[in-house]
Here is the input.
Amino acid sequence: MSEYMDETVKKAMKEAEDRVNMYYHVAVDWIDKIQRGLSVGGEIKRRNWNSIAIYGYGDLGRLLYKEATLNQIDVKYVVDRNPYYKSLPCKVKIITPDGDLEKVDVMIVTALNYYSEIKKSLIEKEFQAPVISIEELIYS
Here is the structure.
């Protein structure tokens, strides 16, 4: 294996490790919030957001969907670029980022590594609702 390939593999492995660590800490802090009698769903309701969209349907996105529905919060749709998620049986509409983004009270991004890029893209598309990271709800 060439030296360049070694460095490329090392970089990719480091990025994957960093992503796993970030998701781990967010998940632990989310559980801690629940154990303190608080919830992300409660925070959404406190902010008077009645209809939401979720950007990213990986593990955190699916957890947010479950918590939102348990708290009677209307999840209008989920945005994800991965076609795999469209093949899953689920009760929510899954659209691609270039799809028609209906009006909602807030877009909650669960794709933590891409939050800045996603927010910028949505602003460029003139998306009319606030765009926040799931972290804002977990750490508030």
In short: The chain has a mean pLDDT of 91. The chain has one domain: 3-138.
